[in-house]
Design a protein that fits this description.
globular; two-stranded antiparallel sheet; binds iron/sulfur cluster; alpha+beta; about 120 residues
C-alpha cells in the first residue's frame, strides 16, 4: 500500500449500513471482550449467520456478526461508538482492509462515503 491516508472525522458513516456490507463481523476475541464489557452473553448482541459468500471469500461461510445492523450499528450513539474501548477488530482497522484498495490506491467506489479518506 502506498500513500494511503485516513484520519477519522467522527462522521459515524462507517457504522451505517450499505447493502450487503451492512454487518460487523466478529472474531472470537471481539466477542469475549464485548461479553465482559457489556455483562451479557453473546446471544444478546450477536447472531451466527450464514453467507453465500463473504467479502473476498467466495465459498459459503458462517460467522458471528453484531445483531441489528440493517440500518446502522446498534452501538452507534450520537455518531460515536458506545463501545469504543472494546470495539471489534473490523472497526478498529477500518479502512485499512485489503479489499478496499485497488492498485495501491483507495477504491473510492467502496470508501468514497468516508470523510476521513485521504486526510
Ligand atoms: S461497534 Fe462501534 S465502531 Fe463498530 S460499527 Fe458499531 S458503533 Fe461503529
Amino acid at each position: 500500500m502506498k500513500n494511503l491516508k485516513h484520519s477519522c472525522q467522527m462522521s459515524g458513516e462507517c457504522c451505517k449500513s450499505r447493502g450487503e456490507q451492512g454487518f460487523v463481523a466478529l472474531e472470537e476475541s471481539d466477542i469475549h471482550r464485548m461479553e465482559i464489557h457489556l455483562g451479557k452473553p453473546r446471544e444478546e448482541f450477536a447472531e451466527f449467520r450464514s453467507f453465500s459468500s463473504f467479502r473476498n471469500i467466495t465459498e459459503p461461510h458462517s460467522r458471528w456478526i453484531i445483531k441489528g445492523t440493517e440500518k446502522q450499528c446498534p452501538f452507534l450513539a450520537n455518531n460515536k461508538c458506545s463501545i469504543h474501548s472494546v470495539k471489534p477488530i473490523q472497526c478498529s482497522t477500518w479502512p485499512f482492509w485489503p479489499d478496499l484498495t485497488k492498485d495501491g490506491e483507495w477504491d473510492m467506489s467502496k470508501v468514497g462515503f468516508c470523510k476521513g479518506i485521504g486526510k
